[in-house]
Amino acid sequence: MTRPITRFSLSLAALLLGSAAFAQQDDLIIALQLEPPHLDPTAAAAGAIDSVLYSNVFEGLTKFAEDGSIHPGLAESWDISEDGTSYTFHLHEGVSFHDGTAMDAEDVKFSLDRARAEDSQNAQKALFAGIDEVTVIDPQTVQVTLKAPDGAFLFNMAWGDAVIVAPESIEAIKSNPVGTGPFTFTSWTQGDSISLTRNESYWGETPALSRATFRFISDPTAAFAAMMAQDIDAYAGFPAPENLPQFEADPRFQVLVGSTEGETILAMNNGLEPFDDPLVREAVAHAIDRQAIIDGAMFGLGTPIGTHFAPHNPDYVDLTALSNYDPETSKTLLADAGYPDGFTTTLKLPPPSYARRGGEIIAAQLRAVGIQTEITNLEWAQWLEEVFRGKDFGLTIVSHTEPMDINIYARPDYYFQYDNPDFQDLMAKLTATTDPAARSEMLKQAQRIIAEDHVNAYLFQLGFPTVADAKLHGLWKNQPTQATDLTGVYWDE
Length: 493
Fold this sequence. Notes:
The chain is an alpha+beta fold. It has 3 domains: 27-32 and 176-259 and 464-491, D-Maltodextrin-Binding Protein, domain 2 (3-Layer(aba) Sandwich); 62-165, Dipeptide-binding Protein, domain 1 (Alpha-Beta Complex); 262-462, Dipeptide-binding Protein, domain 3 (Roll). It has 13 helices and 19 strands. The strands form 4 sheets. Strands 1, 8, 9, 10, 11, 12, 13, 14, 15, 16 and 17 form an 11-stranded mixed sheet that branches. The chain has a 4-stranded antiparallel sheet with strand order 4-5-7-6, with helices on one face. A hairpin with a 5-residue loop joins strand 2 and strand 3 (70-72). Helix 7 runs antiparallel to helix 9 (327-336) and helix 8 crosses helix 10 (353-367). The radius of gyration is 25 Å and the shape is globular.
């Protein structure tokens, strides 16, 4: 005999269904524009790697907070010798890599020695050049001895290029990253997404999210459609700023507009004619209307810059007047340099919207003073091979999202090949200086040198818009380093 459905049974079913419906969400689908070329942050210049893995999968001795300050990471504390050349790091106990192996001082030594080795592929090898020796004191203590005091050493150790890796998993790191972070790598569907899962054995505070999927949507139109359809929960670094007002007016969404460390520049190959001539570089700089690029390519989202330094930094000097928009001066300088009829050069553009959209505007501005550009659109892997490593370019547009990276101008073999011994000496003195006031003056001097040399045409500081579900909390608004830190992200109950 079939038992009749009672009112109590219906009420219980409704209660159970209601509980399931209102269970707190603990997964996330977040979109980014750029897919990493591989998954080893210690062996590539691609910031897209850190965008997925920094603080999520990999950790360093120190780490950046959202405001750019330096906090303890895998090192819970450190002692600095009186002469500033010795750092003794005390590691957190009970830290394991995702494969279950213990993380200890030997792994720190391995990571730092690997980064500074002669055959190192680390894109920021210069960060480790000042290390003289790394010594294991005991499993929880490691001493780093420097060749000279370095006022930025703890800052440098927070970079994604300085994360701690293990010898046991290093061979497969590019496709199977094994770190110590609060999320473990689950899978990578190339061309589509990367999935992470909460590390239930994490040594620190367990994140609220149980899993996260990074989807890669490069096309701005597709990004807008996916967000509006709520196929994704958030898009960090939304590539279509013209659509932001529409999201701001929709109660389903929130829009966060923050700052970045991204100095967006029209880089010139100083080692290639005619850009080895300062007059030509100055002519290029005066041909550029920054505000037209900010308005036309970024729909107003960006802050004009006149040197390679972030405007939100207290040591920033506004030097935009040294390269103001003045096409007539540009033509005069070209004539003085021996190019009265201009010249033709290459303009190689990586995928981001600021480059592709900005490139068309810049090409038109340069054409107006007689400089013809042959535009080539490159994917990131091509850009890294041809431009960054191969130095096969005349002009390119890129945003340098690394924090406090003015020291790249002291590296003659860097892709834009600026070689100024006086600047190199200044950077060496800056590194050896710990007094904040003295460092501030040196940084201001450094900004002026590269602005007056017109090493590159400085365009704008990249803004960082994030569009997210209105119920999502804890996403970084600002980008003190290129990262999508999910450790504090959670949903409203």
